[in-house]
Amino acid sequence: MESIIDQSCPICDSSDGLKLFVHISEIPYFGEHTQMTMMCDSCGWKNTDFIPAEGKKPGSWTMKINTIEHMKVRVVRSSSCTVRIEEIGLEVEPGGNSSGYITNIEGVLNRFRDIVEMILRQAKRDNEENVEKCLLLLEKISEIKKGNKEIEIVLLDPMGHSQILHDDAISRELEKEEIAELSVGISIPVFDINSANDLQE
């Protein structure tokens, strides 16, 4: 379903309205999810999120990662989710360009790797001290992917839309104090699908 919503772009402030694409599908092992994507034709900004049909309590998911088999574990990360790996000091918070994605543990690690590599390229031009730190982080990420280093991956989602699919993954509801400290990024407005006809086509 494609609609136009009467909301200005959070990036360029265009008042032309945002395009909203809604697609409901069955994600293997996760159940029914709604994929919502907002786009601005004026500046090209795009935001995608995944919303499960069930369970929307603010939640945390954690899992110990210590074997190469764990690289295949499926992950749904919503645009409001903070991803944390404390053992190597890495954390990604939701921001203005944050989008949800479906991947596996290896995919999450690759996203961290890509960010570190981007910082490394900048450090080679501006800050030699950070070059060594980046190279060390890349080595640690590589060892984790080989199953040679144990870490705990943590998903913290105030909207409750993120999940780790594995029997060893532990979920719990977030405390109010934790929620207050977390960023949620830019939220896509959630509409009742039954009322979608009220939106401008």
Element layout with pairings:
Elements: E1 2-5, E2 18-27, E3 31-39, E4 46-52, E5 59-65, E6 74-77, E7 82-85, E8 90-92, E9 101-104, H1 105-126, H2 128-145, E10 151-157, E11 163-165, E12 170-173, H3 176-181
Please provide a written account of the structure.
The structure is a single chain. This protein is of the alpha+beta class and 201 residues long. The chain folds into 2 domains: 1-54, ZPR1, zinc finger domain (N-terminal domain of TfIIb, Single Sheet), CATH 2.20.25; 56-187, Jelly Rolls, CATH 2.60.120. Helices cover 23% and strands 33% of the residues. The chain has 3 helices and 12 strands, in the order βββββββββααβββα. It has helices at residues 105-126, 128-145, 176-181, and strands at residues 2-5, 18-27, 31-39, 46-52, 59-65, 74-77, 82-85, 90-92, 101-104, 151-157, 163-165, 170-173. It has a 5-stranded antiparallel sheet with strand order 8-7-10-5-12, with no helix packed on it. β2 and β3 form a beta hairpin. The longest helix is centred in the middle third of the chain and has 22 residues, at 105-126. The relative contact order is 0.23. Residues 188-201 have low confidence and may be disordered.
